[in-house]
Amino acid sequence: RMPKRVKIWEVGLRDGLQNEGVLVSAELKVAFAARLAQAGMRHIELTSFVSPRAVPQFADASEVLAQTLRKSAEMSSTAGVKESSPNISVLVPNEKGLKAALAASASACGSAAPTGLREIAIFAAASEAFSKSNINCTIDESLARFAALIPQARAHNIRVRGYVSCVFGCPYEGKVSLDSVLRVTRALLELGCYEISLGDTIGVSTPVHVTELLQHLRRNGVGIDQLAMHFHDTRGTALANVYAALLEGVSTYDASIGGLGGCPFAKGATGNVATEDMVWMLTEMGIDLGEVNFPELIRIGNDLTASVGRSNLSHVSQCTPEA
Ligand code: HMG
Ligand code: MG
């Protein structure tokens, strides 16, 4: 079942930055997105249309999205460069967020342009307490919200990816049952999400738990090709967890450049698995990631982490000679 090809969703500019107190300028974020695309990251979660009071880092979401789409449109109008435009997505919690994202896209490319926003991600949780703390509503209320939101996105020809957070453990409730994850995953798929990213928000999973969860979902009718994994490396198990998920056939993974990441509403949630580490391991395993410029990825990780006053948290950046 081991996939020959893996797709990476680069979430560093969203999950990576949302927990950082140092605000990165819109201009720099746009430049980082362009560099990531040029280095071979084909799928970039760019920013988040949440309340700026909840996450001040994304007060500039409209500007970042509009500028990035404008840049992408310019690139695709240049003959031969079309292939290098990445797939851009943004996190959206509600209709207000969707409206703002659509307005930013329309201001950049006109409402009907094929170069506009084509994908968003919504986010639910497998635990009630985390749902309350993260998005201020119960799981069922969040599903009702998404039931209204998803058709609006689809009407604009926008694909919807769904996150389920806290699938292995919750900072408030502790262990989360397999059936809670199954219920929310199924509900989001039925509402029209094309893929569900299962989040180990506080990094408590082990490979055994990954196998157990994926087998439970599969036994209950969820297709492995409908799933992605989103690991946080809080306790150093993220790459081992990736391997367990590979053995179950999962071929899409979220990763964050420089290993940045965390959730302001999950105490103790630290960085996502670093893109650089994931790319190194999968490449060494002979898995096809498309064309990736590895030394440039490390430079981007160094630069993004430096921009928030940190050093690169990936393992490979500690041992690779300066590229
Ligand atoms: P609420 O307070 O229930 O919403 O927040 P509300 O509708 O009552 O609105 C309250 C205020 O927020 C109002 O402003 C709204 O206009 C404003 P006021 O009138 O008080 O000045 N507002 C918005 N502003 C901008 N954009 C919007 C928006 N919506 C309302 N879209 C809400 C509900 C979800 C909006 C809020 O709780 C929120 O923004 N939370 C942020 C959650 C977040 O960003 N969490 C981190 C991302 S999830 C994650 O990291 C996990 C993941 O990585 C996977 C994993 O690791 O597991 C995905
Ligand atoms: Mg996360």
TrEMBL record:
Residues 6-293 form the Pyruvate carboxyltransferase domain. The chain holds residues 222 to 544 of 545 of the full protein. It is an enzyme of class 4 (lyase). It comes from the Eukaryota. Its EC number is 4.1.3.4. GO terms for molecular function: hydroxymethylglutaryl-CoA lyase activity; metal ion binding. Pathway: Metabolic intermediate metabolism; (S)-3-hydroxy-3-methylglutaryl-CoA degradation; acetoacetate from (S)-3-hydroxy-3-methylglutaryl-CoA: step 1/1. This is hydroxymethylglutaryl-CoA lyase. It catalyses: (3S)-3-hydroxy-3-methylglutaryl-CoA = acetoacetate + acetyl-CoA. Keywords: Lyase, Metal-binding. GO terms for biological process: ketone body biosynthetic process; L-leucine catabolic process. Belongs to the HMG-CoA lyase family. Coiled coil: none annotated.
